[in-house]
């Protein structure tokens, strides 16, 4: 089986599972996704991301902020092994594995899937990104990356401060450079990160605002 066909089958399965998770969640009136839709309806004036706007929300909650100024809260709708699928009230979804961005849906030029080693993998790694081009063909990007730990920092996450360890990741592909940043607490949990999505989207800042 060729790499392109295998990747298409994988992407179809990933997208199908995310859609099924969203449908099953919608059927439950008390599901985190339904509660999120009720509170942050996409047809209403966009909610400003503040602590007050999520008061009383007890389920795991992720704040995603893009470079164009848009932001959304996402709830975890599915767990599949190490994968965590998060979805917003207006249908945007992300797949994270140990806090590393693996896929997006509904963001425009989506990251269809990615192979990204965990931060514990070492200082020199390769990350592989898969995208669709305008013709529907799969485009594969293989990035050569180096990681450096920058020690203890304080990071502000939606009006709360956390002591974290910062790791910077610099990746190169034929002279093009992207830089991802991760802020981890003492247990290794990624509290906040700034990760590359695509040329069309740019970077996304992911903040875990409710554990």
TrEMBL record:
The answer to whether the entry has keyword Oxidoreductase is no
UniProt keyword list: Lipoprotein, Signal
Pfam families in alphabetical order: YjbF
Show which residues constitute the signal peptide. Answer: 1-21
Q: Which InterPro entries match?
A: GfcB, YmcC_sf
This protein's source sits in the domain of life called Bacteria
- The molecule here is called Group 4 capsule polysaccharide lipoprotein GfcB/YjbF
């Amino acid at each position: 089986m060729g790499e392109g066909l295998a990747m298409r089958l994988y992407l179809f399965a990933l997208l199908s599972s995310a859609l099924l998770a969203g449908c099953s969640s919608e059927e439950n009136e008390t599901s985190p996704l339904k509660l999120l839709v009720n509170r942050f309806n996409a047809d209403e004036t966009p909610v400003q991301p503040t602590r007050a706007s999520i008061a009383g929300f007890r389920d795991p909650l992720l704040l995603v902020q893009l470079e164009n100024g848009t932001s959304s809260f996402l709830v975890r709708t599915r767990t599949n092994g190490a994968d965590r699928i998060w979805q917003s009230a207006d249908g945007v979804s992300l797949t994270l594995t140990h806090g590393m961005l693996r896929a997006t849906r509904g963001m425009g030029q989506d990251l269809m899937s990615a192979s990204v080693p965990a931060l514990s993998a070492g200082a020199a790694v390769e990350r592989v990104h898969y995208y669709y081009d305008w013709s529907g063909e799969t485009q594969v990007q293989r990035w050569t990356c180096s990681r450096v730990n920058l020690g203890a920092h304080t990071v502000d996450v939606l009006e709360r401060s956390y002591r974290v360890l910062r790791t910077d990741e610099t990746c190169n592909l034929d002279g093009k450079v992207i830089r991802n940043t991760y802020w981890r607490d003492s247990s290794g949990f990624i509290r906040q990160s700034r990760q590359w999505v695509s040329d069309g989207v740019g970077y996304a800042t992911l903040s875990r605002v409710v554990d």
